[in-house]
Amino acid sequence: MKTRSNILRKGLLVAIMIVLLFPLVQTLFPVFDLKPLDGVIEEAPRVELTVSNWLDESYQKSEEKYLTQHFGFREFLIRLHHQIDYTCFDKINAPAVFEGQNGYLYDRKHLDAYLGRDFIGDVLIKDQVTKLRFIQDQLAPYHKSVIVVLAPGKASFYPEFLPKGSATQGYYTNIRGYLNELKSQGINYIDLYHYLKNEKKKATYPLFAKYGIHWSHYGAALANDSITSYLEHLYGVEIVDNSWSGVSLHPAYDTDIDLLVLLNLMKNPPLPEMAYPNIREIGVKERSKLPVLAIGDSYFWGIDRFFSRCFSNYHFWSYNMEVFPESSYSAVATYQLDLKEQLAKHDVILILATDANLSDLGWGFIDKAEKVLRDPATKRYLNNNYNRKLEFLKQGMRGDKNWMGNIAKKAAEKHISLDSMLTLDAQWVLHQYEVK
C-alpha cells in the first residue's frame, strides 16, 4: 500500500513537472502555432547585454519585460484567463472596452463623446468652422467643394443598451456645436448623425453591430448612398447607378466584431446574423470622373469599399496621415505631398468624422489648408492650373465652326462679346467633363 502511494506521489510530481516545463519547451522550440493576440500590443525589444546596462540594472528590467511577453503558451493562457473572467464574472480584460446591456460592447471614447466629456467649447468650434468657410470660399471659383460629413458613434446610436444607471446625453457636445455652427456659416455638410438614428427603427437590418464599434456594412452602404446622392444633387450629375444590389446574410465578421476580437477569448459568444451588401464591380468607363479627396477616421473605410469602385480619381487620407490607395502598396504619408497640388487635383474635399473624433476634426488638415490658401502663391498656382485647362479647351472649341456658330448666337442674345461667351461655355464644358 505504501509502495503504491509512493508511486502515485512520484507520478503526480512528474506530471506537474511536465506541465511546468511545457512553456519552457514551447519558448525554446515553438512546436504549436498559436493564434496571436488581437489589439495594439507594444512589443518589448530584446536589449543587448553590456557592462553598463547590467550594472545600472536596466538590462534586467528590459529582459524581464521581454520574457514576460515571449514565454511559451502565453497567448493560450491569456485567452483562457480572459474567457474565465468573461464567462464566469462578466469581466472584460480589454482597455477602454466595456459591456452594456444585452451583451452590447462599447468603448469609452464614444461614451465620452455622447456625454460631452470631450467638448472643446463653442469658441474653438466656431474658429474651425470659420476656417472651413474661408477654404470653401477660396475653392468655390474653381468649382471645388468642401463637404463635412458627421456620423454617429456607437454610444450615440445605441444609448438604450448602455449599462443601467449610465448618465443621459450631455447638452454641451461637439456634435451639437458643429451642427449649429456649420448651418450658421453656410458650410456644405451631411448630417448622417441624425439621419441614421432616424433610420434605426425603419431599417431592414442593423446599422450598427452588437459587437462592433463602427457602423455595420449595411449602415455604411446607406451612408454611401446618402453621400453620393448629395454629390449628385450638388453637381447635377448621376455618379453611379446602383453600386450595390441586395445583401447576403452571414454571422457577424470583420468590423462588425472589431470590439469582440479585442477581448481575446478562447471562444466567441454566438454571433448575430448581419447583412452584407453585394457590391457590384463597376467598369472603368462607368466610373465617375469627379476627383474626390476624403479625409476621415476609421468609419470612412466602410465608405471606401464603394468609393474606390465608383470614382476613377479618388483618394482617402486616413486621419490626414496615410494616403490611400497608394499606402496599400507602399507607405505614403500626407506630409510627403504638396497640399496646393492636391487642392488643384481634387474638386470634392470630404471631411468625415464620427462624434468621437470631432474634438480634432480634420486632424490638422483644416489648419494647414487655410494656411496654404492664404499664401498668394497658392492662388496663382490654382489660377494657372485652371486657366491652362480652360485655354486648352477653348482652342479646341475655336476649331469647331458649328460650335463657334452657336457661341456667336448666344453671345448676341446675351449682349456680350464672343470671347466672353466662349469662356463661359468652356467653363461649363470643363466642369461637366470633370464631374461626369
Structural features, described:
This protein has three domains: 1-31; 97-372, no CATH class; 379-435, no CATH class. It is 48% helix and 12% strand. A hairpin with a 5-residue loop joins strand 1 (97-99) and strand 2 (105-107). The protein has a six-stranded mixed sheet, with helices on both faces. It has a two-stranded antiparallel sheet with strand order 1-2. A two-stranded antiparallel sheet has the order 5-6. The protein has 16 helices and ten strands.
Secondary-structure topology with pairs:
Blueprint: H1 2-28, H2 51-55, H3 58-70, H4 74-89, E1 97-99, E2 105-107, H5 108-115, H6 122-139, E3 145-151, H7 154-157, H8 174-184, E4 188-191, H9 192-199, H10 217-235, E5 244-251, E6 273-279, E7 292-296, H11 300-310, E8 314-318, E9 322-324, H12 339-345, E10 348-354, H13 365-373, H14 376-398, H15 401-414, H16 418-435
Parallel strand pairs: 3-4, 3-10, 7-8, 7-10
Antiparallel strand pairs: 1-2, 5-6, 8-9
Helix pairs in contact: 6-8, 6-13, 10-11, 12-14, 14-16, 15-16
Give the mean pLDDT.
87
How many independent structural domains?
3
* Radius of gyration, in angstroms, nearest whole number: 29 Å
Global morphology: elongated
Strand arrangement, largest sheet? 4-3-10-7-8-9
* SS strand fraction: 5-15%
Query: How would you characterize the largest beta sheet?
Result: 6 strands, mixed
**Helix and strand sequence:** HHHHEEHHEHHEHHEEEHEEHEHHHH
In a few lines, what is going on in this structure?
With 436 residues, the chain is α/β, with parallel strands linked by helices.
